[in-house]
């Protein structure tokens, strides 16, 4: 079985303001680390290099092992991974293994779980692959800049009994802000991005290239692993003429189902595993279109059908994935923790409106909500920070914070998160996966396991999990400019 995208060819232009010639763009293969027990000692070198996102020119970027994305690391569930990291950058860095339930000392958060890896220094990460699924790795030091410069890569942990497909393919979606000359724009962490919806770029890549086509064959069944490595862009992908089936979210199996409204939505850091049957005609093309931002739709890539079918129709193989060993939370007996997000442009108006709505005839619990939102408003007006969790803005530079929540180990907990802002926030919890149990008071249909949940403006989302991984853990918005602007906190499991 081929794990990697077949090359597909021709042109693709910048999706917005940057202009370029894209003749001959290749759909790249991801360099892989074979999943054999003898090869689980992997070396990653973070360094400045040059890449070609859009032909004909190259540009400077920050890379793992000289490529963007970094090498695809593959191993099997239950195996152990040891990664030796060499920092050849001009500044400190770390690696966070996003979505993987690692021991606290391996989580890669500077000054919280480890000392940052200094320039010219090394560090070894080592952990067991407890859960199968689609994960990824990236820095947690100055992540709003280091990720935007190209430091990210996929981590695939294969099931012992994977679903049967013709190809297992990874698409790592990147978002770049390029200048007219084709260089990465240096306006990292600017005030406008922090206070609005983050650093949304003008160039989208798949596996480090701007492609025109992805080669497929009629009758083929593909497992497509989508990873959103953008610092801020949310994707809503429409596979026109095809019927993708969601089989995993954030690496965790879910009951196979069609995506809501036909769109596969991924906030920053989120992953979706799809089964797609190639049912188009031989020799045809079908566009994959991003429709998340109204009025800013664009063609991401074309599915390009070979002239020779693989078979007349796709096979009817089973779709369900085996469950991972996650402890089931006891929602009814779990203590509740209220978390309110405030701040950002227009945040004062939203928080005031929500506070007034919740305050009218509210119970004591809802009044607590209102007080938290109003406190956040007052702090926003008197602080240089942009974003707040329960009225507190974090210092992104240090990550060294007192825990906001104290959760008893091996107990079930519910966290009710209210987005009292005008912007979307993909909220990520480190060290744990959680069930998304309700949105705006309505139970979710699939009770899905995730580690990053996209919370819409004015929305309340409840999650539940067993706090079984001891230590001090981050939770934060994965719009990385929002994190840099204060939307980050710590929960302690002890």
Which architecture of the largest domain would the CATH scheme give at its second level? Sandwich
N-C termini distance? 44 Å
Q: What is the helix content?
A: under 10%
Mean pLDDT: 88
Shape: globular
In total, the number of strands is 32
At the fold tier of CATH, the topology name of the largest domain is: Immunoglobulin-like
Strand content: 35-45%
CATH superfamily of the largest domain: Cupredoxins -  blue copper proteins
As for the number of domains, it is: 2
Write down the CATH class of the largest domain.
Mainly Beta
InterPro entries: Cu-oxidase-like_N, Cu-oxidase_2nd, Cu-oxidase_C, Cu-oxidase_fam, Cu_oxidase_CS, Cu_oxidase_Cu_BS, Cupredoxin, TAT_signal
Domain Plastocyanin-like: 59-159, 168-280, 387-493
Protein name: Multicopper oxidase family protein
Signal peptide: 1-37
What does the model show?
Residues 1-37 form the signal peptide. Residues 59-159, 168-280, 387-493 form the Plastocyanin-like domain. Keywords: Metal-binding, Oxidoreductase, Signal. Helices cover 9% and strands 37% of the residues. It has helices at residues 143-146, 191-195, 347-359, 364-382, 480-484; strands spanning 32-33, 41-51, 59-64, 72-76, 80-87, 96-98, 122-128, 133-138, 153-158, 167-176, 203-206, 213-216, 221-228, 235-239, 245-249, 252-257, 264-266, 271-277, 285-290, 298-305, 336-343, 387-389, 405-407, 412-419, 425-429, 434-439, 442-443, 449-450, 452-455, 460-466, 471-477, 488-493. Strands 21, 22, 24, 26, 27, 28 and 30 form a 7-stranded mixed beta sheet that branches. A 6-stranded mixed beta sheet has the order 11-10-13-18-15-16, with no helix packed on it. A hairpin with a 2-residue loop joins strand 26 (434-439) and strand 27. Helix 3 packs antiparallel against helix 4. The protein is globular.
């Amino acid at each position: 079985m081929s794990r990697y995208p077949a090359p597909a060819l021709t042109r693709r232009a910048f999706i917005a303001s940057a202009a370029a010639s894209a003749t001959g763009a290749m759909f790249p293969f991801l360099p892989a680390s074979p999943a054999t027990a003898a090869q689980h000692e992997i070396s990653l070198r973070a360094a400045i290099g040059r890449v070609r996102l859009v032909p004909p020119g190259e540009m400077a970027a920050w890379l793992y092992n000289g490529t963007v994305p970094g090498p695809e690391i593959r191993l099997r569930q239950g195996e152990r991974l040891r990664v030796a990291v060499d920092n050849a950058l001009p500044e400190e860095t770390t690696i966070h293994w996003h979505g993987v339930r690692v021991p606290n000392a391996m989580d890669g958060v500077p000054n919280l779980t480890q000392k940052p890896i200094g320039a010219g220094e090394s560090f070894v990460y080592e952990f067991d692959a407890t859960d199968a699924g689609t994960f990824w790795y990236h820095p947690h030091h100055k992540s709003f800049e280091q990720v935007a410069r190209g430091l990210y890569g996929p981590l695939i942990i294969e099931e012992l009994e994977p679903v049967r497909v013709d190809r297992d393919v990874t698409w790592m979606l990147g978002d770049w802000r390029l200048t007219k000359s084709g260089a990465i724009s240096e306006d990292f962490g600017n005030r406008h991005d922090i206070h609005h919806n983050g650093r949304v770029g003008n160039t989208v890549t798949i596996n480090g290239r701007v492609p025109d086509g992805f080669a497929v064959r009629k009758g083929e069944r593909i497992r497509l692993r989508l990873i959103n490595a953008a610092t801020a862009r949310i994707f809503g992908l429409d596979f026109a003429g095809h019927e993708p089936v969601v089989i995993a979210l954030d690496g965790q199996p879910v009951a196979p189902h069609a995506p809501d409204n036909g769109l596969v939505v991924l906030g920053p850091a989120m992953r979706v595993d799809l089964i797609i049957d190639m049912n188009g005609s031989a020799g045809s093309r079908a566009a994959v279109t991003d429709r998340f931002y109204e009025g800013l739709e664009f063609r991401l890539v074309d599915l390009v059908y070979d002239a020779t079918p693989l078979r007349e129709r796709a096979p009817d193989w089973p779709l369900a994935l085996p469950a991972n060993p996650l402890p089931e939370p006891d929602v009814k007996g779990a203590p509740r923790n209220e978390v309110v997000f405030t701040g950002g442009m227009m945040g004062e108006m939203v928080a005031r409106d929500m506070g007034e709505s919740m305050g009218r005839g509210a119970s004591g619990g809802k009044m607590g909500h209102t007080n938290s939102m109003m406190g956040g408003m007052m702090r926003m007006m008197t602080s240089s920070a942009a974003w707040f969790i329960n009225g507190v803005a974090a210092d992104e530079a240090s990550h060294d914070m007192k825990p906001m929540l104290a959760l008893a180990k091996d107990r079930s907990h519910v966290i009710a998160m209210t987005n009292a802002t005008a912007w979307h926030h993909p909220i990520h919890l480190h060290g744990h996966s959680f069930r998304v149990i309700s949105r705006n008071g309505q139970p979710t249909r699939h009770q899905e396991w995730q580690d990053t949940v996209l919370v819409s403006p004015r929305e309340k989302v409840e999650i539940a999990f067993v706090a079984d991984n001891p230590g001090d853990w981050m939770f934060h918005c994965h719009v990385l400019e929002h994190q840099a602007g204060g939307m980050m906190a710590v929960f302690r499991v002890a």
